[in-house]
Amino acid sequence: MPFALIPEGYKLQKVTKLQKEAVDKFYSSKNIDSFLDGQASGELVKAVAIVVTPIVLAALAKQVDLPDFNITEFIDKQLEKIPGLDLSALSNISL
Fold first, then answer.
1. What is each CA distance from 32 to 6, 39, 42, 65, 67, in whole angstroms?
2. What backbone phi and psi angles, to 5 degrees, belong to 6?
3. Is the whole model's pTM more than 0.85, yes or no?
4. Confidence check: pLDDT of 39 > 70
5. Do 69 and 61 meet the contact criterion of CB atoms below 8 Å apart?
6. Range of the domain at 39
7. What's the structural domain count of the chain?
């Protein structure tokens, strides 16, 4: 029979399957809230925005079909405005 160290003031008790699911859901919700309240979620949003925004803009530009608007040039100009951005590692990627 396995033993567990139980902190003082706590007790072990049997729970039903529904009670276990409720506790698991509660702590899962707490973990999500903790992540969203932390600094990592802001960084994740920034990273997703950087990746998704050019894709969405390119799709919209193709649908609108503006003859004098080149999305690639526009994105390149915007990327040049970001201080400290080094995209040299991406120069060898071919699609």
1. 26, 13, 14, 41, 45
2. -115, 125
3. no
4. yes
5. yes
6. 17-82
7. 1
Say which residue the tokens 């509660």 belong to.
26
CA angle 43, 47, 75 (to 5 degrees): 140
- Return the HEC string of the chain: CCCCCCCCCCCCCCCCHHHHHHHHHHHHHHHHHHHHHCHHHHHHHHHHHHHHHHHHHHHHHHHHCCCCCCHHHHHHHHHHCCCCCCCHHHCCCCC
Quickly tell me which residue has 């925004």 as its tokens.
53
Share of the chain above pLDDT 90, in %: 6
Q: What is the mean pLDDT of the chain?
A: 78
Which pair of tokens denotes residue 63?
Answer: 């649908």
Q: Are 54 and 75 in contact (CB under 8 A)?
A: yes
